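Project outcomes to date are best conveyed with an example. Our students and postdoctoral researchers have been running inverse folding experiments weekly, and each run begins with a structure described purely in tokens. The record below, which covers 568 residues, was selected by the lab manager from last quarter's runs and is presented without edits.
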């Protein structure tokens, strides 16, 4: 399915209207719309300017307008291209507006201002003129010297569209381009502590103990006032206590691992240690070692506590690392699911738009076929009605002619019956032309046959009998010529008297003549043809509408009376 706009079917009409607006001779605006799907056609055009143009836009359609206006500041013509997409346009058709409008901008070149219109405010003449004034610096040209020579207008060059189609970002490509920082393992803060040599410490301590026992130490005990440790702790800064205690504790462990840590050097303390005389030996060396030099157990506990604390810290960091990895995996999974959902929705939306477009095109095709069928049916019915009307008029005309002919014949018969035939004798005539009887009271003639018992009922119609006596009736007088006369009384002399030729010539010259005013072509065998200006002689006024006469070629027959005018 091709969803692009079709500019080729009506290309000639589109270019012609576009050129008319460029020249500004006949029209100054034109509106384009769609026909049968995506075929662009000219909807309307006019010379009423923007005021007339604004009423041509439909809320339920996509339309394009090309207009020519005069800039009030520069007094130069400006061309405006308007793309109209009404609020009532179906959503699937709105998706094609930008691509179609881009093609229209390439086709309708040379415009100075492009407007994407959605409502009546966007096509208001004041708004458009405001945009014209703001574009191209035309509002700064009001003080141009009008007496300066006018430059010849340069040809309008095509202006490249500033439209840039928006590109949908590819989330997958963006994620690939982002550098993923590798997750590095967190180094442990654990530092192995050097274990003091307990045996050497014990030997050093025992040696010092023996030297002290040899000397008598004088007691220097003096009672001191016991300091209020709680009060001192309240007055001392709390932040300074912990680092000092920890530092003293660690230093004592390293320097005096075999000795018990008894006194803490508290900052700002007034406590003084009590000096005691050297004690006597109170037991064996093993007892002293086991009872007084037991700090290695305390050092091991500190190390074990530190190791456990570092192990817990390491486990905590490991848990945090795994938690971060889990959250990162969940985030990527959510992004992938969201990306798949968006792609699926886009596919469903495109499929829905395709189905709606196909349904719309099918409905448009059916509507066009239905309108074409209805138009053809109306034309056929109109043609049948016209044919019936013509047939009815023809039938009425023939009936009127037939009635008129019968009336004429009846009047001739009545006139003939009222006139007594001449007792002098019977006329004979020879048929000059063939004649087919049109009525029951008429007789047919055969060229060259002899007609007897002729009764001259009228100047145009005679009555007679065929030579064999099988036929009798009326016939046109100009289809025969008299040849002889016979005396009806057998007792009297029968003598055929031929009519003298000079007398006939004299009678013919005495009949009126007429000049043809129009051309006439014979429609029947008993009629004559002539052209304008011909002279018809020996005219016999058969009826008011039809006369009988002799044409210039010598033919004798009927002709319409209103086609000639009498001479003299």
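After processing, the design step wrote out the following sequence:
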């Amino acid at each position: 399915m091709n969803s692009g706009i079709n500019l080729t079917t009506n290309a000639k009409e589109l270019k012609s209207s576009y050129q008319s607006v460029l020249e500004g001779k006949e029209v100054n605006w034109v509106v384009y719309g769609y026909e049968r799907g995506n075929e662009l056609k000219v909807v309307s055009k006019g010379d009423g300017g923007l005021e007339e143009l604004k009423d041509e836009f439909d809320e339920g359609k996509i339309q394009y307008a090309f207009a020519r206006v005069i800039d009030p500041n520069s007094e130069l013509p400006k061309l405006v291209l308007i793309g109209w997409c009404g609020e009532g346009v179906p959503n699937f058709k709105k998706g094609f507006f930008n691509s179609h409008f881009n093609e229209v901008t390439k086709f309708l070149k040379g415009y100075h201002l492009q407007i994407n219109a959605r409502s009546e405010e966007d096509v208001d003449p004041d708004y458009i003129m405001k945009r014209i004034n703001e574009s191209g610096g035309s509002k700064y040209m009001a003080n141009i010297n009008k007496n300066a020579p006018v430059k010849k207008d340069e040809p309008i060059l095509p202006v490249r569209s500033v439209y840039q189609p928006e590109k949908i970002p590819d989330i997958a490509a963006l994620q690939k381009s982002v550098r993923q920082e590798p997750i590095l393992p967190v180094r442990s803060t654990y530092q192995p502590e050097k274990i003091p040599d307990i045996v050497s410490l014990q030997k050093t301590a025992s040696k010092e103990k023996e030297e002290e026992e040899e000397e008598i130490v004088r007691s220097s005990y003096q009672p001191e006032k016991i300091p209020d440790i709680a009060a001192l702790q309240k007055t001392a800064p709390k932040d300074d206590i912990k680092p000092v205690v920890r530092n003293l504790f660690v230093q004592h462990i390293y320097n005096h691992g075999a000795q018990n840590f008894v006194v803490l050097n508290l900052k700002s303390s007034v406590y003084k240690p009590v000096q005691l005389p050297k004690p006597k030996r109170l037991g064996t060396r093993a007892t002293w070692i086991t009872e007084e030099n037991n700090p290695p157990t305390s050092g091991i506990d500190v190390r074990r506590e530190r190791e456990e604390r570092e192990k817990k810290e390491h486990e905590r960091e490991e848990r945090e690392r795994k938690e971060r990895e889990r959250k990162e995996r969940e985030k990527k999974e959510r992004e992938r699911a969201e990306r798949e959902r968006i792609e699926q929705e886009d596919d469903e939306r495109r499929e829905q738009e395709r189905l709606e477009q196909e349904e719309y095109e099918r409905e448009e095709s059916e509507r066009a076929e239905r309108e074409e069928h209805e138009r053809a049916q109306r034309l056929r019915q109109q043609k049948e009605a016209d044919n019936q009307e013509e047939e009815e008029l023809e039938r009425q005309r023939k009936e009127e002619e037939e009635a008129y002919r019968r009336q004429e014949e009846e009047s001739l018969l009545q006139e003939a019956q009222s006139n007594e035939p001449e007792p002098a004798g019977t006329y004979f005539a020879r048929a000059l032309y063939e004649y087919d009887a049109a009525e029951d009271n008429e007789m047919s003639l055969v060229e060259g046959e002899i007609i007897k018992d002729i009764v001259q009922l009228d100047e145009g119609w005679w009555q007679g009998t065929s030579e064999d006596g099988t036929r009798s009736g009326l016939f046109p007088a100009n289809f025969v010529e008299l040849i002889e006369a016979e005396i009806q009384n057998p007792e009297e002399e029968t003598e055929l008297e031929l009519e003298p030729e000079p007398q006939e010539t004299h009678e013919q010259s005495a009949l009126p003549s007429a000049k043809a005013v129009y051309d006439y072509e014979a429609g029947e065998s008993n009629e004559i043809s002539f052209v304008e200006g011909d002279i018809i002689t020996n005219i016999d006024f058969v009826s008011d509408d039809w006369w009988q006469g002799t044409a210039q070629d010598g033919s004798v027959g009927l002709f319409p009376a209103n086609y000639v005018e009498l001479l003299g």
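The first strand starts at residue 29 and ends at 35. The radius of gyration is 67 Å. The training component of this project remains on track.
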